């Protein structure tokens, strides 16, 4: 993964711009959701949770990579802690940053799954939406998703003494790695397969639910073209805003699936013994860049969000 000075500078510039994009976009999202009464809904709470997870990535995960790469360029030597894994020193930054990145990634996936469930109920069972989806239940689910996601992120170190965290010179991020044992295959790596298994289970379920919801929306649109709806019929159909929101969540699902798939491929390949240095860099940073996509999707797909954001700016 050697590169020229110009490439290193471009890489650092990309990381710095990504930090600003993540912070700016998600702070705008939080300001709109928390500062506008229209968004004080279960869907708004979930979007706020997603924004907080992305914001944490921009505040802690990416800056550590910027520090390590700038230090390398200035001193022509990497920081001392990058030469060791978390089992070799008493304190290692990756002991904190690694689980933060993993936990926030899992939070994002579970939140998109919950958003999909919320929208599917609004589309498929509009009369039951307000009784089933409440702000209290949504808040409880958000707390559980954060606790469960971060427990999953630290579980490799809890359940295996062979797994450590290290700053990877290929991905330029904190990654899970073998601690004292360097042979392949190791049973410890099988624990890491829980990550893509968990993620793809939720993403697969999210895709299926989105397909069902969008199919229902398409059927509803066809009926509106051929039938004159009565007042009674209209009360049992999803509203235009519910349909628009369902399509927005579908777009979020596609974006996150596209950004996460390279990481899943890399983890499986790593378990099988493939290093894939250059591929790991692109895989991890595509996933990190996903933290600034949500606000772009909201701005394009949600007119009310766009108007509120415009007023704030």
UniProtKB/TrEMBL annotation:
Keywords: Cell membrane, G-protein coupled receptor, Membrane, Receptor, Transducer, Transmembrane, Transmembrane helix
One Pfam family from the record: 7tm_1
UniProt organism field: Amphiprion percula
Family: Belongs to the G-protein coupled receptor 1 family.
Domain of life: Eukaryota
Keyword Transmembrane among record annotations: yes
UniProt key word Acetylation: no
Transmembrane segments: 12-36, 48-68, 96-117, 138-159, 191-217, 249-273, 279-300
Entries under PROSITE patterns matching the protein: G_PROTEIN_RECEP_F1_1 (PS00237), G_PROTEIN_RECEP_F1_2 (PS50262)
Subcellular localization(s) per the UniProt record: Cell membrane
Ranges where the G-protein coupled receptors family 1 profile domain occurs: 25-298
GO molecular function, one term: trace-amine receptor activity
Membrane topology category: Multi-pass membrane protein
Cellular component terms (Gene Ontology): plasma membrane
InterPro entries hit by this protein: GPCR_Rhodpsn, GPCR_Rhodpsn_7TM, TAAR
Protein name: G-protein coupled receptors family 1 profile domain-containing protein
């Amino acid at each position: 993964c050697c590169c020229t000075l110009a490439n290193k500078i471009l890489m650092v510039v990309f990381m710095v711009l990504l930090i600003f994009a993540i912070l700016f976009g998600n702070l705008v999202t939080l300001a709109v959701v928390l500062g506008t009464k229209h968004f004080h809904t279960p869907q708004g709470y979930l979007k706020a949770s997603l924004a907080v997870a992305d914001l944490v990535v921009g505040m802690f995960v990416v800056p550590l990579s910027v520090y390590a790469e700038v230090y390398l360029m200035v001193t022509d030597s990497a920081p001392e802690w990058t030469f060791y894994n978390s089992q070799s020193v008493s304190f290692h930054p990756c002991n904190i940053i690694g689980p933060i990145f993993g936990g926030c990634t899992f939070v994002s996936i579970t939140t998109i799954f919950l958003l999909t469930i919320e929208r599917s109920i609004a589309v498929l069972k509009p009369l039951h939406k307000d009784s089933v989806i409440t702000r209290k239940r949504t808040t409880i689910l958000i707390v559980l998703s954060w606790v469960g996601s971060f427990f999953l992120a630290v579980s490799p170190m809890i359940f295996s003494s062979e797994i450590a965290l290290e700053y990877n010179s290929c991905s330029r991020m904190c990654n899970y790695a073998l601690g004292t044992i360097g042979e392949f295959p190791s049973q410890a790596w099988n624990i890491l397969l829980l990550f893509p298994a968990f993620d793809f289970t939720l993403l697969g379920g999210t895709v299926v639910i989105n397909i069902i919801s969008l199919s229902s929306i398409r059927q509803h649109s066809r009926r509106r073209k051929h039938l004159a709806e009565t007042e009674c019929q209209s009360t049992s159909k999803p509203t235009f805003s519910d349909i628009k929101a369902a399509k927005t969540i579908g777009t979020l699902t596609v974006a996150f699936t596209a950004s996460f798939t390279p990481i899943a491929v890399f983890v499986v390949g790593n378990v099988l013994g493939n290093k894939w240095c250059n591929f790991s860099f692109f895989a991890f940073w595509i996933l990190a860049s996903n933290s600034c996509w949500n606000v772009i999707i909201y701005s394009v797909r949600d007119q009310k969000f766009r108007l509120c954001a415009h007023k704030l700016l």
